[in-house]
Amino acid sequence: MNAIELFPTLRNLTRADKLKVMQFLVSELAKDEEPSLEQGATYSIVSPLNSHAAAHQLAQLLEADKQKEHE
User: Fold this and answer.
1) Is the residue at 43 inside a domain?
2) Is residue 20 part of a domain?
3) What is the pLDDT along the chain (71 residues), one digit of tens a residue?
4) Phi, psi at residue 57, to the nearest 5°?
5) Quick one: how far is CA 39 from the chain centroid?
6) Domain that holds residue 12
7) According to a count of CB atoms within 10 Å of the terminal CB, is the N or C end of the chain lower?
8) What does pTM read for this prediction?
9) Reduced to 3 states, what is the DSSP secondary structure of residue 39?
10) How far, CA to CA in Å, does 63 sit from each of 4, 44, 55, 58?
């Protein structure tokens, strides 16, 4: 069944039922927009926490910025 076939039935619904249909459709569309994550699954997250390379690079950038201020 496609949307065009549903239209006559939808027109005959009460206002309250039409609102319920709208809420259902909006909810379904929102689910389609969400990233598909499975409940209970484990996902890796990339973070600079405990990254010595990131800390070193940040220290270099701060030092370079400090030198620019003194020029």
Assistant:
1) no
2) yes
3) 899 999 999 999 999 999 999 999 999 998 888 777 788 989 888 877 778 888 899 999 999 999 988 87
4) -65, -40
5) 16
6) 1-33
7) C
8) 0.47
9) coil
10) 65, 32, 12, 9
